[in-house]
Design goal:
Elements (H helix, E strand, L loop, with lengths): L1 E7 L13 H20 L3 E6 L2 E2 L9 E11 L3 E11 L6 E13 L17 H32 L10 E2 L5 E6 L13 H20 L4 E5 L2 E3 L8 E12 L2 E11 L1 H6 L3 E11 L13 E2 L3 H24 L15 H17 L4 E5 L3 E8 L2 E10 L3 H8 L12 E9 L4 E8 L8 E10 L8 E7 L12 E2 L5 E9 L2 E9 L5 H9 L4 H19 L1
Parallel strand pairs: 7-14, 20-22
Antiparallel strand pairs: 1-4, 2-6, 2-10, 3-9, 4-5, 5-6, 8-11, 9-13, 10-13, 11-12, 12-13, 15-16, 16-17, 17-24, 18-19, 19-20, 20-21, 21-23, 23-24
Helix pairs in contact: 1-3, 2-5, 2-6
Bound molecules: Butyryl Coenzyme A.
Length: about 550
C-alpha cells in the first residue's frame, strides 16, 4: 500500500533563502500519506496526528523531492503511515534524507461513522519490522500527554530565571486569519491537514523572526494533533507566540481556532489544532545565530515557557536514545525518556531478531545456536524447542527474579522498580569469571504480549542508569546493549524460545570460551532453561 509523490522544487515553493519552504513540504507529506491511508482503507481518511518531525537536510530550487509513504499498521479505525522524504540533486543524482516521519489517519467516510480497518498485508522483512514497531510508536504517541504533564509538574518547581535584557514574549505575538477556500480542502470540503500545517508554519516563522531579525529555518515540529475538522467557508485564526529560546533555537507555539459564519459573529471558536515549532537562524556565512533570552509576562506565558523546556527535554533525550552507540554508558531512566527507552528496548531486540545473515554454529536435539556478525558487532541467538504453551514460557521468562533457578550466571536478581505491568528495572549480580571481578547490571526488562497470533511474545533487556544505584567498588558495572527473548507459539502445548544477545565487553568474558569451543555454558544454560520451563509447567 505504498504511494509515492515526486516534486520539482520551483521558485514558488522556496523561501527567501532559495530553499524549499516547510509549508509546501508539509502539504505534500500529508497529501501523499493520506493517499496511502485511503488506498488501504478504501474510504476517505482524515489526519489525526503527525508525530514529531525533524528536518535533516534542506532542498534547493531545481532539486527533486521524493515522498514515499506506506501504511505500516492498521489498528482499529486508525492506521500509522510511514513517510520518507528524500532530496535528489539532478546534476549529481546524489540522494539525501530530508525527513522520516510517522502520521496517523482515521478512516472516516463522509457523513458516516468510523470504520474498522483490515490488517495490512506484510510482504517484505521491512514490512514486518515496521509493523512490529508501529505498535510501540503508538504507545509513545498516546502516552505523550501524561509524560509531558509529569515533566511540567517537575519543571514548575524550578523558578523562571529573571534575566537582564530578556525580551518580553508578548513582543513576538502574531495573529493571522485565513478563509478556507475550495483549493485548501479535499473533495469532501475538509481543510487539508497539510494546508493547516503550512499556514501554522508561516505564522510561527514570522513570530520567530521578531527575535532573530533573519529568516528562521524550521528544524523540528512537535506532534501535530488535529482535534477537530474545519471546512470550506470556515475562517481559521492563527495565534503564534515565542514560548522560549535556547541559545541557537527558538520554540514557537501556534494555536488554531475555526469559526463558521455563525460562530464568528457569536465569537464561539472551535479549537482545532495546536503545535510547537522549533526554528534556527543563520547569518550570511551560514553560522547559527544566538537568540536573545525571553521573559514571559503572563501566567499563560510562564506555563508555555516551562512547557517548551519540557518538550525540548523529551526531544533531546529521544534523539540521544535513538542515536545510541555501544561505546557510551547506558541512558539514565528519567521521566522525559521512559517511553523512548522502552521503545528503543523493544525496537533494538526486534531489529536484531529480524536481521538477515544468522549462521548456525551448533545444532543439538532441541537447541540451535546461531551467531551474527556485522562489522565489529557480534550477536548470538539460542533457539530452544520447549514443550510448554507460549504464554507459560512468557510468564516464566519475563519474571527475572526466577532466572537464578536456571541461569547459573545470575548470582542475585532483585526488582529495583516495578514501573508498570510491562516494565521493570532489576539489579543483577553475576559470578566472577577467572581473573575478573564479579559484575553487576542495572537492566530494564520490557515485556510485550503479541497483538496477533502470528506475532511472538517479547521480553527485551537493556541497561539503564539509575541515580539511586551507582556503581560500587565491589562489582564491575557492566552494560547490556540489547538482549532478550522472543517466544513463538508452535501449537497449544509447545513453543520456540529464542534468546538473543548483542555481545558487549560486560558479557564477553562469559561467552568467549563458548565461542572458541572450550566451554559449553551456553548450551548447558539452554538445557537448564528448557528443564525449568517444562518442570514448572507440569507443576502448574
Ligand atoms: C490530506 C487529506 C487529509 C486531511 O488533511 S484531513 C484534515 C485534517 N484532519 C482533520 O480534520 C481531523 C480532525 N479530527 C477529527 O475529526 C477527530 O479528532 C478524529 C481524528 C477523527 C478522532 O476522532 P475521535 O472521535 O476523537 O475518535 P477516537 O477517540 O475514537 O479515536 C479514533 C482513533 O483515532 C486514534 N487517535 C485519536 N487521536 C489520535 C492522535 N492524536 N494520534 C494518534 N491516534 C489518534 C484513536 O486511538 C483511535 O484509534 P483506533 O480506533 O484504536 O485505531
Amino acid at each position: 500500500m505504498a504511494v509515492c509523490m515526486c516534486q520539482a522544487v520551483l521558485p514558488a515553493h522556496a523561501g527567501p533563502r532559495g530553499e524549499l519552504g516547510a509549508g509546501p513540504l508539509l502539504r505534500w507529506m500529508d497529501a501523499t500519506a493520506c493517499l496511502a491511508a485511503e488506498k488501504h482503507a478504501g474510504v476517505s481518511c482524515v489526519t489525526a496526528s503527525m508525530d514529531d518531525i525533524q528536518f535533516e537536510e534542506a532542498a534547493r530550487v531545481g532539486q527533486i523531492i521524493s515522498i514515499r509513504t506506506k501504511v505500516n499498521r492498521a489498528f482499529k479505525t486508525s492506521m500509522e503511515v510511514g513517510i520518507k522524504v528524500t532530496v535528489q540533486d539532478v546534476l549529481t543524482n546524489a540522494e539525501k534524507i530530508v525527513s522520516v516521519a510517522y502520521a496517523t489517519y482515521v478512516a472516516k467516510p463522509v457523513d458516516a461513522g468510523k470504520v474498522e480497518l483490515k490488517p495490512v498485508e506484510l510482504l517484505s522483512a521491512e514490512d514486518h519490522l515496521e509493523h512490529s514497531l508501529a505498535i510501540e510508536r503508538r504507545r509513545i504517541r498516546l502516552g505523550y500527554v501524561q509524560v509531558f504533564q509529569k515533566l511540567m509538574q517537575e519543571s514548575n518547581k524550578e523558578d523562571t530565571r529573571e534575566e537582564k535584557d530578556a525580551v518580553s514574549t508578548e513582543h513576538t505575538h502574531v495573529q493571522s486569519t485565513e478563509l478556507v477556500l475550495p483549493p485548501h480542502a479535499n473533495h469532501h470540503g475538509n481543510t487539508f491537514g497539510g494546508q493547516i500545517m503550512a499556514w501554522m508554519q508561516t505564522v510561527a516563522s514570522i513570530s520567530a523572526s521578531r527575535l532573530c531579525r533573519s529568516h528562521p529555518i524550521l528544524k523540528s515540529v512537535n506532534m501535530f494533533k488535529f482535534w477537530g475538522p474545519s471546512f470550506v467557508g470556515d475562517r481559521l485564526v492563527f495565534n503564534a507566540i515565542v514560548n522560549n529560546t535556547f541559545h541557537n533555537s527558538v520554540e514557537v507555539g501556534v494555536r488554531v481556532e475555526a469559526y463558521n459564519c455563525e460562530e464568528w459573529i457569536k465569537d464561539q471558536p472551535r479549537h482545532i489544532n495546536s503545535a510547537f515549532l522549533t526554528f534556527n537562524a543563520v547569518n550570511d556565512k551560514g553560522e547559527l545565530l544566538t537568540f536573545p533570552r525571553v521573559k514571559p509576562t503572563t501566567e499563560d506565558g510562564v506555563r508555555r515557557y516551562h512547557g517548551a523546556i519540557a518538550r525540548r527535554r523529551i526531544r533531546l533525550t529521544r534523539k540521544c536514545i535513538l542515536s545510541a552507540k555501544g561505546d557510551k554508558p547506558s541512558d539514565a531512566w528519567e521521566t522525559s525518556n521512559q517511553a523512548y527507552l522502552s521503545y528503543s528496548n523493544i525496537a533494538a531486540l526486534t531489529h536484531l531478531a529480524r536481521k538477515p545473515g544468522w549462521d548456525i554454529t551448533k545444532t543439538l536435539d532441541n537447541i540451535r545456536i546461531w551467531t551474527h556478525e556485522e562489522g565489529a558487532v557480534l550477536s548470538f541467538k539460542v533457539e530452544m524447542q520447549v514443550k510448554v504453551p507460549s504464554h507459560v514460557a512468557f510468564s516464566l521468562l519475563s519474571d527475572f527474579s526466577l532466572r537464578q533457578r536456571w541461569d547459573r550466571h545470575f548470582l542475585t536478581c532483585k526488582v529495583l522498580q516495578a514501573v508498570s505491568e510491562e516494565e521493570k528495572i532489576y539489579h543483577i549480580t553475576s559470578a566472577p569469571t577467572t581473573g575478573h571481578q564479579p559484575r553487576d547490571f542495572v537492566v530494564l526488562v520490557s515485556q510485550r504480549q503479541p497483538c496477533r497470533p502470528q506475532e511472538p511474545y517479547t521480553v527485551a533487556v537493556r541497561s539503564v542508569t539509575l541515580r539511586a544505584v551507582p556503581p560500587s567498588p565491589e562489582f564491575c558495572r557492566s552494560e547490556i546493549l540489547c538482549a532478550g527473548f522472543q517466544i513463538h507459539s508452535n501449537s497449544s502445548s509447545s513453543c520456540t524460545v529464542c534468546y538473543f544477545n548483542q555481545v558487549t565487553s560486560g558479557v564477553m568474558p562469559y561467552l568467549a570460551a563458548n565461542l572458541t569451543g572450550s566451554s559449553k555454558s551456553i548450551e548447558d544454560t539452554a538445557l537448564e532453561c528448557i528443564k525449568f520451563l517444562e518442570l514448572k509447567d507440569s507443576k502448574c
